[in-house]
Amino acid sequence: MTTAKDIMHTGAQWIYREETLDRAAQLMRELNVGALPVSDQNERLCGIITDRDIVVKCVAMGHDPASTRCAELCEGTPRWIDANADVSEVLHEMESHQVKRLPVIENKKLVGMISEVDVAQNLPDEQVAEFVEHVYAR
After folding, report:
1. Rounded to an integer, what is the distance from CA 44 to the centroid of its chain?
2. Do residues 49 and 74 lie in contact, with contact meaning Cβ atoms separated by under 8 Å?
3. Domain 4-136 part of CATH 3.10.580.10
4. Contact residues for 43 (Cβ-Cβ < 8 A; gap 6+)
5. Is the pTM above the cut of 0.85?
6. How far apart are CA 39 and CA 55, in angstroms?
7. pLDDT tens across 27-66, in order?
8. 59 partner at 20 to 30 Å CA-CA among 7, 50, 113, 122?
9. In whole angstroms, what is the distance from residue 120 CA to residue 129 CA?
10. Left if phi > 0, otherwise alpha if psi is -120 to 50, otherwise beta: which for 68?
């Protein structure tokens, strides 16, 4: 059985919800990623912030990323997957909620992220095609 932990990208890091978007952008640059899970003070998932969120929902709206907090852009119920979940559960979660990135949690700790790149690199073409159809074609 292939699990979330088998296909995830390790080294993911939280950003605290009260950090500013400019700090989020700096951390994304340092880690060479396009998204960061956002946590509360207890390291519980509050959402995900993406580079696109920063540009479209902050900069393009005329807001200052140096004074806008990550929490201001977190919307909806955060999605995540347990590290031991079967890859079919991973795909179901991503497809049913049309998300392209999924934090991986083990023992209440962030241990990695799964992105569409991880799906494409680790799964058979048939599963990748189905994933693309469900996430991008809607």
Report:
1. 14
2. yes
3. yes
4. 14, 108, 109, 110
5. yes
6. 21
7. 999 999 999 999 999 888 999 999 999 999 999 999 999 9
8. 113
9. 9
10. beta
